[in-house]
Write a structure and sequence with these properties.
heterotrimer; A alpha+beta; B mainly alpha; C alpha/beta; B: mainly alpha; about 0% strand; globular; C: Beta Polymerase, domain 2; 5-stranded mixed β-sheet; two-stranded parallel sheet; 7 helices
Amino acid sequence: MTAVTDRQKLAYIAQQAADARVNVELETEGMTLNLGPQHPATHGTLRIVARLDGEQVISADPIMGYMHRGYEKLSEVRNYAQITTLVNRIDWLGSFANEVPFILAAERLMGVEAPPRAKWIRTILFEMARIANIGLFLGEMGLQVGAVSPTFYAFRDREFVLNQIEAVTGGRFHPNFDRIGGLKDDLPKGWIADTKAVMVRMAEFCDLMEDLLLGSEIFEARCRGIGVIPPDVALQYGLSGANLRASGIDWDLRRDANHGLLAYDDVEFKVYTHPDGDSFARFWVRLQEVREAIKIVEQLCDGLPSGSIQAKVPRIIKVPAGEAFVSTENPLGEMGYYIVSKGDLNPFRVKIRSASFNNVSIVPWLLRGVYVPDIITILGSLYFILGDIDR
Amino acid sequence: MIGLQLAYWQETILRIVIGLAALLGLTGAVVYLYLFKFVSFMQSRLGPMEAGPYGSLQLLAEVGKWLQKEDVFTERADRFVFAASPFVVILSTFMLFVVVPGGPGDEVAHMSNSLLYALAISAISVLGILMAGWSSANKYALLGGLRAAGQLVAYELPMILAVVGVVIQAGTLNLQEIVAAQSSGGIFGWGGIGNPYILTQFVGFIVFLIAMQAELTQTPFDMPVAESELVAGYMVEYTGIRFLVYFIAEFATAVGFSAIAATLFLGGWGLPESWGIGRGAMHVIGPLVVIVKAVLLTGVVFWVRFTFPRFREDQLQRLAWKFLIPISLANIVVTAVLKVVF
Amino acid sequence: MEKVPHVSTTDTPEETVEVEPDELREGLVAQLGELLGDSLLDHAILPGVDLTVRVANEAWAQAAEELRYVLGARYFCFLSALDWMPSPYGRYLDAEVDKVLAAEAGESVDKEPEPMVSGVCGGDTRLQVFARFSNVKSHWGITVKADVTSDDDPRIGTLTKVFAGADWHEREAWEMFGITFDGHPGLRHLYLPSDFEGHPLRKDFPLLARIVKPWPGIVDVEPMPVVESADGPAADAAAATDEGDAS
């Protein structure tokens, strides 16, 4: 840990010097390698045009938009209930988490507050979306560096969480469960006990991933010191979530913002940071994040308040004029909605601040000077979802 | 073979048929046993279950599918080289198979320095892979081909050096004689299990297995075909029957190297002489023994393949040059000294 | 678009929440006022929650710089733009529902032209740029708005020299709103094909799919129940149901 700052500095200098160094010294002809849009490592349709010298990247330019669905424009012609369906599709692995900040922003504009039970159930589902999402990352990171089996374990165990989400919301992937002022339904009978059993299982899954990947010297060799992001650069690019915390910045919106909007004030959890800022640190932080999420769900299940799940709201939702920005700590990072309302059935403008867009915007900076295999490690460890970039 | 008088050309054809049958049969068995089932169970899934009992005919279905597919050439591919490369690779594999002894005097091709031949001929596959990488007119294939060339050349060396220990101990380069030396030998005079060289050449065995994994471009040394970055490396443009040939070559080579490793370190077809099994019976038992050993070693290959992440190219080279080669050189020195002392 | 009566739009949430003044955010505004002088045009505080300021066009990059280096808002959240022109298309064919509602409520069905109103902190131009920064140490965020130079040739300074991460956000705002960021290293298309014409997020850019065909969810819907009282949503507790489901 003591050598961290030196290592960071060295990596930083090396990356800055890379493009100057490579071609001047060797005078070789470069090659343009086109990764994607159909490429197994890009989780969808991200395309990266990389200039290579041998296997070293001189410059990398991500090209997006193959999946741009224009949600910001569509939101302007839909009413609030319809937009919830829309934003579900942004980060499709943790869909429920997408709805929450949007609903919270609309609630702030309307001046309504969900009853405590609704808040708690929202938080439970939010954290379960996180477990499902990052749980898959843990396995997939193995796949990116070449270990096939962890992916299968991740898909297997994620299914238990999805089953629980489905039991409440009716949808495995796209719950569309959040309503302004509350939730669509209450929890089904016996759900709490089942969920606790699932959480025990997920805790075992975390241990398994730690054994399989963190404990593997090859994994460590592939990830340590790869894709180092110094804290200041991370802040400049607006990296959020585990990517930011892996650079040593202690910033978690669950703890540091949105007081009273969700049930995080009532539970004990720890926010993990890592000083290294490399791919390994990002994996480690995410692993701990899943463990903390499991603890949060267990605590919330124990102390679930009774009462209504829906505040009094008009049957037709017309949000008063105003502007509000609410962001929450989503599985991928900070996800926020800037809603401008003019008192209509539909918002006047919705700016979607998605985590992956910022997280990926650092890629050109980060990929300079790395080797082709490291592109995959870095992209994997930054962990983005295409729907979250392209919106 | 046994008591049968055949013309030279008849015998040659018979040998080729036996060799091909061994190659295809063993490859099929290994693919079903390990790639389809063993790995599926490792990953908590069932694997193919529909075609035949427990999916045992799945491989035939797959082969049928590949044979039907269009044989695609990329527009700017060097057509002749592109078309030929899978066959170069499988030729190297087949020629590796022909020297694996399956019983007393039972091998497809007799030669005195068969070990030297096996190590030399296995290196030809690099040529085929490089041909594929270069002729595909695809950057991924090129990167994969070049990586493969670098890797295979680098791991050829520790493999040969690991074998030298066995050669010193057995005092011969003939695989049959190495088998004989193991089954007739004894541990400090006790011949209950013969003297398989895995006991005395354990370091060599491990180095050989690692180098073998790398030669096969299996994880953790599968940089050349790394599917999450190079998609399929040098194989990326191949479809249909040519891909099938590559596929067979990949797993056949795994069996072939495993058979060589079984012969060198595990006693090959031989059973300890003290068990008193006759030479005639060994013609039947011998092939079974060596097949079982080879298939078990192939299992290790797949076990490792589906457990570990993969090395990066530079880490992989570092492992070969800085770790495996020194250790196998040390092994040679120690073996040589002990050989003189005892 | 204004078919159904609604309560006065000036009723911003700040006024409804009765909290003591927010010292942290007041202090920030005061500090920013010292640093920027007259360039700090307006501010709005949502006590204990949020802060919005509007700065002059020329002071845009300077404001970001002061925020980052002096006030410690080192975290760049996002940058985007707003188009305050009321959409000439309304809600396209979906707006038919509004007519049904308006007719039932006894309102005029005709569409009256809507005036252009800027939102929180006001503004003079149709297009506005806004960005958000956070201080990750003392846990506050600030939204900064600025007008563009003119509606015909909207320009504003780039933030990429202060926050390298503004690069892609400015490219997005450039292609979606047509705002030129002076000094940006390379304004290229981010999402859209490079020969795309028009700026999709501007209000006068038609959403063709909606013009061609109404949203299928809306055409077969039965006329929505009308809000009973004309007092607006907040006061209308009587009509609320447990589902709270608007569609």
